[in-house]
Structures are given as C-alpha cells and as structure tokens.
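Could you help me review a protein record that somebody else here produced? Here is the record exactly as it was handed to me:
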Amino acid sequence: TPEPTPTPLPLEGAVICVDPGHCVTPLTGTGQRELVSPLSDETKYLFGGGTAGANQTEEQLNLAVGLQLRDALEALGAEVVMTREVSEITLGGIDRCKIAQEAGADVHISIHANGWTDPDYNGAMVLVPYGDLLGTPSIVEESARLGELMIEAVCEHTGAKNLGTVQRSDLTAFNFSTMPCVFIEMGFMTNPREDALMETPEYQAKIVDGMVESLLAWYGVEE
C-alpha cells in the first residue's frame, strides 16, 4: 500500500521575518542617525538603547520572545527569518527591512516592550504603519488587519490590558518596509507587575501563543 500523504503543516510556504527590537552595539549613544523614510531627508538617532526592567533589558526580553516565536512558527511549517539571534550585533531599522526583503518575507513582526515615566502605565499595544512617509503605502491595510488580530489574541492569552493598535508615521522600519509590518509592544517594563510577568517563560509563552494565533488567522489557516 502506498504511504499516506503527510498532512501539510498549517504555515507551510509562509515566510515570516521575526525582528527582536534593539541590540547591544558599541554605536549606542554615539549620535549616529538614519533616515526616517525613503521619501524624506528627515533623520533620527539610530541606536537608542530601549527600555529596561528590574532584571533584564528590553533587548534581552525582545530576543527571548523572538526566539520562542521562531520555534513556534517553524513547528507549524513556516520559514522564519530572524533579524538577529544574538544580543551583540549592530542593526539599524533599514538593515532590518533589508533582511526581510532579501528573504522574500510575507510579513515583518518587530518585537518590543514599552517604558514610561509613570510606573502605573501598563498594557500591550501593536503599532501599525500609516501616513505619507511610507515607501510602500499598500502595506497599510494588511498591517492594520494583522495588528488588530494580534493585539486581541495576545491580550486574550495574557490578560494584559488591551491598548489597541496605534498608527505611527515616524518609524523607519515601517517607512522602508515593502511588506506588511507590525511592532508589538508586549507591556511596560516600567510597571513592576507587568515587568515581573514578562520575566517569566510562562508569560512569554502566552505572548507567543497570541502572536501565533493571530498569524494563523491572518494567513487564513486553521491549526
């Protein structure tokens, strides 16, 4: 009897760029700048250090969650392109877009955490591209659709306050992206309770579960 045809995995054929935000680079704080948009001469500081919690930096948290997301998506059959898998690397926003583009990614997921001067601020949000500085304006609709799916699913899995999606026109990674792109802000590292949760592998796994669920829905496949 012939071997049964294996059931294809739900994300087979998908190419997803996972982009853990920030990095550890000797260029932090040196005043290097990069363009905000291919359509403008405006520049911004290239290497901001990100925020930090009691026991980890944002860069470390972003990487931990990014690696878990990679493993979860690969288990579902996706090809995952990482912008970084180590802390010590020098990557700007335009560099990250190029990695996604050269891999032929369908979508670019950038992973971040928030910080604020008021320690009571808490909750998760997803930033989405918008505005007249976008090099590829056609990414707006699909980015917004994924953003809505992602914030709903992540907050459902984690119980975090849902701060919704936020349109941003000032982010290099959005303005240079040629594919749908979202930035998840997983929570506030400046909020002691949320910071303590985000330190735990269990809570990180809930964030990843929500991101995976939203990507399955965005691609229109059932697990």
The first strand starts at residue 15 and ends at 20. The radius of gyration is 17 Å. The mean pLDDT is 94. The chain has one domain: 15-219.
